[in-house]
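Record 1 of the preview.
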Amino acid sequence: MSAAPRPTGLTLHRASHVLEVAFDNGEVFRLPCEYLRVHSPSAEVQGHGPGQRVLVPGKRNVNIAAIEPVGQYGVLLRFDDGHDTGIYSWDVLYDLGTHQAEYWQAYLDALAAANLARD
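->
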């Protein structure tokens, strides 16, 4: 398996609540903060084993308060709702970007099935 493309740019658009991530293969993803928050790679969201993923509602207006580099492999995103335990590797950000439409729809479907809302 080849390595994922490397990041060349990371820009937080606070007003629109979007993190823009550019990669060296020319791809640029505009990832809403809400999308990143509900798909956090943290154990709090992913659970501690298969099938333990936690559905996170009510994050429509969440924003990123700070971005901290973690070595050469990713960033820690600190959200303004206090969530700050998810380290987003470049591979995770690339995966979230390339599968954004399907992951987002699955999240919306899961919210609807659980009678939960984005607000």
